[in-house]
Amino acid sequence: MNRRHFNALGLLVAATGSIGSALAQAATHTASIASNATPVILVVGDSLSAEYGLRRGSGWVALLAQRLSSQKMNARVVNAGVSADTSSGGRSRLPALLRQHQPAVVVIELGANDALRGLPLSVTRDNLRSMVRLSREAGARVLLVGMEMPPNYGERYAQEFREVFTQVAREEKTALVPFLLKGVADLEDPTKLFQSDRMHPNESAQPTLLANVWPALTPLLPKR
């Protein structure tokens, strides 16, 4: 190999080294950006999270974002609530949401519409369990938000429905809000805190919903 070939080879090695160095620097920069990104709290819910019948920005999820901001807590809230959604719908939507948002925390607020539609409790249980596991596999901590059924559904069914959430939380060792509507639906005259349909809490009830979620959520939030 003559001197010209050696010079060409040297240029090629130098160029390759420069490209490799540039790629390494770019990868390090990308990793740095990812590590410094604001952690996401992903709320996957139904109309109780999606501000059904409420002014935009007045629901408990929006109030959560406002509280985090006011307390200068490093987290961003993504509201993926869809009115009328069931646990099956949430389960089917979750993988794409996890890929898109890469959340640090996933709040699962689903199941009420399953009961209203008469779906088997075993289906609700399996869907919630699957959502918890999918979220954990994606590296997120999970908060499961429980619901209860009105007395007219029968005491036995109400108890079995309540136990769906406690069972999943216990078996999966995940955080639990036992009843999102505590202090709203169980009042002596709950109609004051519900919209005219008597199913959806009104704007005045939203701070109470947040108060029910907050104590279980804060231990899951990423530390500064």
Automatic annotation (TrEMBL):
<protein>
    <submittedName>
        <fullName>Acyl-CoA thioesterase</fullName>
    </submittedName>
</protein>
<dbReference type="InterPro" id="IPR013830">
    <property type="entry name" value="SGNH_hydro"/>
</dbReference>
<dbReference type="Pfam" id="PF13472">
    <property type="entry name" value="Lipase_GDSL_2"/>
</dbReference>
<dbReference type="GO" id="GO:0004622">
    <property type="term" value="F:phosphatidylcholine lysophospholipase activity"/>
</dbReference>
<keyword id="KW-0732">Signal</keyword>
<dbReference type="InterPro" id="IPR036514">
    <property type="entry name" value="SGNH_hydro_sf"/>
</dbReference>
<dbReference type="InterPro" id="IPR051532">
    <property type="entry name" value="Ester_Hydrolysis_Enzymes"/>
</dbReference>
<feature type="domain" description="SGNH hydrolase-type esterase">
    <location>
        <begin position="43"/>
        <end position="204"/>
    </location>
</feature>
<feature type="signal peptide">
    <location>
        <begin position="1"/>
        <end position="26"/>
    </location>
</feature>
